[in-house]
Fold:
Amino acid sequence: MSNEIRTLVTIITEASIEKTLAREIEGLGAKGYTISDARGKGARGSRSAEWDYDGNIRIEVVCSREVGDKLEAHLQGKYFDNFAMIIYSHDVNVLRSVKF
Amino acid sequence: MSNEIRTLVTIITEASIEKTLAREIEGLGAKGYTISDARGKGARGSRSAEWDYDGNIRIEVVCSREVGDKLEAHLQGKYFDNFAMIIYSHDVNVLRSVKF
Amino acid sequence: MSNEIRTLVTIITEASIEKTLAREIEGLGAKGYTISDARGKGARGSRSAEWDYDGNIRIEVVCSREVGDKLEAHLQGKYFDNFAMIIYSHDVNVLRSVKF
Amino acid sequence: MFDPIILFFLLGIFAGLFRSELRLPSQIYDFVSMILLLSIGMKGGVELAKQSVVELAPQMLAVFLLGLLLPFLAFPVLRFMGRLKRADAASIAAHYGSVSVGTFAVAAAFMVSQDIYFEEHLALLLVVLEIPAILVGIVLARGLSKNTQWGKVMHEIFAGKGVVLLLGGLIIGWISGPEGVESIKPLFFDLFKGMLALFLLEMGLIASAKIAVLRQYGLFIICFGITMPLVSSVLGTALGIWIGLSVGGTAVLAALAASASYIAVPAAMRISVPEANPTLSLAASLGVTFPFNVLIGIPLYYQLALKAHALLG
Amino acid sequence: MFDPIILFFLLGIFAGLFRSELRLPSQIYDFVSMILLLSIGMKGGVELAKQSVVELAPQMLAVFLLGLLLPFLAFPVLRFMGRLKRADAASIAAHYGSVSVGTFAVAAAFMVSQDIYFEEHLALLLVVLEIPAILVGIVLARGLSKNTQWGKVMHEIFAGKGVVLLLGGLIIGWISGPEGVESIKPLFFDLFKGMLALFLLEMGLIASAKIAVLRQYGLFIICFGITMPLVSSVLGTALGIWIGLSVGGTAVLAALAASASYIAVPAAMRISVPEANPTLSLAASLGVTFPFNVLIGIPLYYQLALKAHALLG
Amino acid sequence: MFDPIILFFLLGIFAGLFRSELRLPSQIYDFVSMILLLSIGMKGGVELAKQSVVELAPQMLAVFLLGLLLPFLAFPVLRFMGRLKRADAASIAAHYGSVSVGTFAVAAAFMVSQDIYFEEHLALLLVVLEIPAILVGIVLARGLSKNTQWGKVMHEIFAGKGVVLLLGGLIIGWISGPEGVESIKPLFFDLFKGMLALFLLEMGLIASAKIAVLRQYGLFIICFGITMPLVSSVLGTALGIWIGLSVGGTAVLAALAASASYIAVPAAMRISVPEANPTLSLAASLGVTFPFNVLIGIPLYYQLALKAHALLG
Ligand SMILES: Nc1ncnc2c1ncn2[C@@H]1O[C@H](COP(=O)(O)O)[C@@H](O)[C@H]1O
Ligand SMILES: Nc1ncnc2c1ncn2[C@@H]1O[C@H](COP(=O)(O)O)[C@@H](O)[C@H]1O
Ligand SMILES: Nc1ncnc2c1ncn2[C@@H]1O[C@H](COP(=O)(O)O)[C@@H](O)[C@H]1O
Ligand code: NA
Ligand code: NA
Ligand code: NA
Structure:
């Protein structure tokens, strides 16, 4: 297929900052994002989602390499010190590349 | 490990077409699929999943490159014009490749 | 960015073994994991998540190649014969690689 | 005096406008809706048990015809005055020809709180009125095309959660009769109004979220969303008197006619007329017409029914 | 006259067969189950408070022995007549030796709606009967292997949601006594039957989803799913009379014996006998035996108890 | 005699310690909380309708000042005796200066079950007491920095689910009056105590999950979590007498002062003082203080109020 390559950035972090993050992701130039609920464990302990406060979210952003880099830099600077958060990214083939 | 390569196609789209899509995915030769609930924002606006109607789903299909291409072509033709939908894909290593 | 490469292992399996799996994943040296709820269909039939018993989970583990291999070998040996389970993996760029 | 359920609706609207993080989890919304639908169905069914269904056939037919008529009224206005695309005009016409169970519930609660008698078997007419507009909407969008899979459309309509629970409730109520349902009254009847309050809280939140969309689509859709229910309510009132309903029953039928669907029709249109923009029709139905009916329409339709009965009844 | 909760079950079955999109969100299913389990436990506990637990010890022992016996009856039939794999035969035997709380609730509701007295402390026997079959099932599958982690198995059983809520409810009811629970009656007792109706609606949906599976496994599993409860109910009836239960209590114990687990046992088998196919045992338990007991079995067991008490009581 | 709701709390704790798989789905927790918050608000509002709000202004002011004072007492203890980081000390101080609605509900239920009169309009004071400690906590962490976005902080506080539902309920109750809310009583008032029981079951599960964390942070946090509420309750008692509350009202105000927030404050701190460790403050608030207040504190505060009223009242 006439695919093109974009970057998929996945962020796993605390549910309580969902709205703020969504705003920031748009502000940095991403044309969309997808969020789902998650639970997990990491350096900051277990986040069991048994309770509003305790849950994680999983955010996916398909975007250009540049936007992805900007996004990662921003999140690293603002959240890594004080929030449960991991970020990973990799290339994906997309259809309708103009959308991303 | 004795891995093999397959394609993982991820589709993010409107929850209301879940059943139809599941049927079509099977019909095109995929041997399985995984669905989870999601919310998000894109060209067709915000889909907040506050409400049945409004939610997204995230469908993953691990399959051969050919099935993946057929699937993408089918979905692009049938849904891209009128439905909130994005598709991306990439290679993954699988165990038990005969399953996919 | 000063990224590094790790492996992302994704496991889709029966919800009823979540606690056991989480323990085993930690035991094999992964530093964290993320779980979300899912439903789907595969060789062992449809798992619709309509009902506690019936649901799937989707586990993601970002880890080194070695831990990933150990994890896959362990799961394959212990669960593939009797449990609905698929595993796939691929490389991802991570920030703060020391966390994984 | 304000009925508290109206205050719950207003609370939802204000919380939404104030960008509060308040929301009813969607599973709770489902739960609350199920209780309301089953309850409305069962109350109607218990009443049906007291009369012969055959007697109701003419009423059902008349209401069915009303459901066929309404979208034909709405369509040209949307298409030519509103300059909407054909698919959008057809889809919105279908929304307004069909009904909203939430509006029915509020209208029924209004009658109960004011001690006004109305025919509970209107729940049956509610189901009847839900359907024809969907068929008309598809025809308006597509013409009488041979390609339309009518079987699939009918399955989509009748297998929808709303219709199954309403019809199921009707049948359960009808078979069980008043003493039969006694043991499940505490959940389905006693909690009804509290559940309706929670439902309206969420509807207020949803309605307020539509305001951003409304701004985008401009004045026409707001005017249509207020004028169309007024017109429909007059037809509903006339029909109510003609088929011999009480004042309360007439007002409830007027509210039904005035209401616009936000569940069954959007679902059916998404499948059968996917090129219609669901954001637009839901903005009208949820952002304008539902609030209008709940806050202003229902008391108005009651006054109308009173006047009309005095004149013609 | 039909009890409406049975109609809810039928509604669920029909909606499922009709491929309706109706479903109870799993969180609501959890909520409804919790209310039912706590309610059953507390009602039983309140009754226990009125008598000495020591007096009940013989009843508990007798019922425990019944729970050990039943899987030994089922296993050879499954293994040799049904030609099932050893693990599957053992697992299904465990399901049928244990109990279903849903069936208990329907049986209790049947007695209440017909004004038949039964011993509420049967809730305690329900817990007792839940457990031994699981142990027997594991032994049947594995032999008395030293590898079985019995500690883990016991934890799995007692830490399961069902047992915790039932036992917790029993203790809460027992400590609080009738006046103590008065203040939480509206949620746990008054809503009981409505919640049971919702529960049965979902069980109907689940049962209908098993039909496709049943087709695949053929006639044997259907015959077993009907015959086994009939046999068990006779043993349950005999035991009920022997330990001195009332007619209603005997019928409820028969229904318990006849019921097949679909929560505690599948969970335990998945951990301890993972090579047993859960689809098969759940198809039998949910697709055949639960509907059979709810629709036909319970009234039958009551007739049986009546007859048996007249003969032997 | 034990109130069953306390037994539900204990059941939750034991189930958690026993590593049972029992849990209330988070959507059900939300549902239950919403009912409790709206109910508390509406009861308070109905009472407010009976008196002039202006008369309450001095009480509100006094309680607001108490909310400002409490974190200033807690902070030095946490910072210098507990050797906590400044941000952590400030954040925990804010938790303990603010309130827990769950504790209020248990205190209110205690008074009702013992037939002790208390002023229902304390729900209004509950909202007032929730807020000032948050502001003080931010100032203690940051100083009076110009960078703090106070507008955003206030929005965060007032748009939070808890405040919106409590204030919304107060206003709805106030406008509707006693007869107005009659029709929604079955859901919001009759089910209140059962819902509180479910809420406490989940709180017990949550509290028991904090024990692992507590072990890690050692004795200081446990001592603080018990001593601080005792001190606060004395101040609350004094204030209650001073502003003229009844014995029951004084005890409820003491319980409010003694309670520590676990919803509004952690949410606000996460945004405004993100370097504070939420695990620590929640371990104290949920793992120590909430159980202490529910199991021991509330009856104690009532004795205190009795004594104090005898001496000074
Ligand atoms: N190695 C990992 N693999 C997958 N998910 C992880 C990993 N480490 C952390 N997470 C997820 O990221 C969240 C925050 O991580 P942390 O900041 O390490 O506590 C955790 O709650 C997990 O859901
Ligand atoms: N750039 C993106 N990154 C991740 N998810 C996206 C992106 N764009 C759209 N989506 C998701 O796909 C859904 C449909 O997209 P759209 O058709 O653009 O409205 C949205 O609701 C999002 O959940
Ligand atoms: N080809 C596939 N693509 C995506 N998910 C799959 C696939 N096959 C199986 N799954 C998921 O893995 C679960 C277990 O698979 P199985 O063991 O094949 O029944 C299924 O319930 C699906 O959720
Ligand atoms: Na209409
Ligand atoms: Na049995
Ligand atoms: Na306090």
